[in-house]
Protein: DHA2 family efflux MFS transporter permease subunit
Organism: Micromonospora aurantiaca
Amino acid sequence: MTQQPVATSTKLDAAVLKVAGVVVLGAIMSILDVTVVSVALPTFQSEFDATYARVAWTMTGYTLALATVIPLSGWAADRFGTKRLYMVALALFTIGSGLCATADSIGELIAWRVIQGLGGGMLMPLGMTIMTRAAGPHRIGRLMAVLGIPMLLGPITGPILGGWLIDVASWHWIFLINLPIGVVALVYAQLALPRDNAEPSESFDFLGMLMLSPGLALFLYGISTLPETGTVADTKVWLPMLAGGALVVAFVLYSFRPRHPLLDLRLFRNRNLTIATVTMFVFIIAFMGAGLLFPSYFLQVRGETTLTAGLLIAPQGIGAMLTMPIAGMLADRVPVGRTVPFALVLIAAGFFTFTQLGTDTSYWLLCGSLFVMGLGMGGTMMPIMTSALKTLSAAEVARGSTLVNILQQIGGSVGAAVMSVILTSELNGSRPIPGVTDPATGAPLTEAQLAIASQQQPELTQQFPVPPSLIERGLDYAANSFSTTFWVAFGLVLLTFIPAAFLPRRREPSHLLDGDPGEDKRPVPVPIH
């Protein structure tokens, strides 16, 4: 293993930016795919004649695969090399995208989304490891700002691109669009990433894998089944949750025994890492869970096209675009405890508008609120992740990024499941229409369900002749259901202020910095693969 001291310059040179370009391209594919699919859920409902809870598995299956494979990425990166593994992940994601486009049923689509997730799950943690090793941790704030580019492009272009492709072509193209990007990313990675050298690897924790990966998959499966069953008492919910939870608890107790555990929970001895991950976890549950509902409101309650819904969500990404580069630079100079709380105030202010939703709420008000939320989002995620990783040693970065990413995915899965359960439960409370049943399930159709369906398929009002006042009443009920769900998300955002209050408010020395006043001056050995 060759070693060299990390340069003291805080600027990102051409060599670092070349490597960053590979990582950003892979992250764009992964994140774009999530946001593109979010606007396609109503389309999947009509195309495959499936319920919302069923088509939501196209998101959940992807996330389950991500959560299952992320714990392996840290060990695999050391064993096989980051370049080889990153290219395998790119190839798997691209192949999965092509298979998704061939799906003839919702079951097939969910299965291929799992394949896609197995590749996508490794892209972000591997990308963070590659970039941190390339530039050194004294520039990690700027690096996070660069890695934030796909997080900006995803919310802006994903829904717009997805909506446009569905409107002018078909849903198949939201997956086919990944094929040329994947091929370009693979060629770019081969040319730009440093060569991997064969190195002795630490032993693999097979016992830990047998507990953690199935445990996470079972637990998240149980949570994600809640929207379909509507009750925790169903065996499809509590049994996998209980079994998965027991395996995860067993892993936590076991993980402090081996020298090289699958997921290194010893890193939580680092106070900054602990506070940052707890803050991020609570925030992700609220923000990612509610984020899936924004396009659904515009599509189902307001009757907009998928393209229009995508355009209406774009202000959120534009707001983040303005603040994320600034927040990245500040994270290298100003303690995150002094900036993140102000960003959270903006998010809470924007969220509050959505707790007051109606059937005719001003688009100017909603778009303005999304823009304000975006401003806060840009000043929250990257600084928190910077705080989590900045004080780790070089040997801990890969394991630290794995830990951060898996908690992100768990938080996102829990948030999506919780918000879906609340919304589904609220909508099911609507008044049933006498003598009218759902053609797909045979269950009585409620006023809210018929009103939502008629927004996308106006011909249903002819198939089920009902007075206009019933449709209006159903839409009012649906809007109130969304409002109630956003109240829960708003409460979780407020809860984030508690751990955020403990984020570092003083500049603390990094274990890896060399050259900053008052900090460790020793050169840092960085492995060159």
Summary: The radius of gyration is 23 Å.
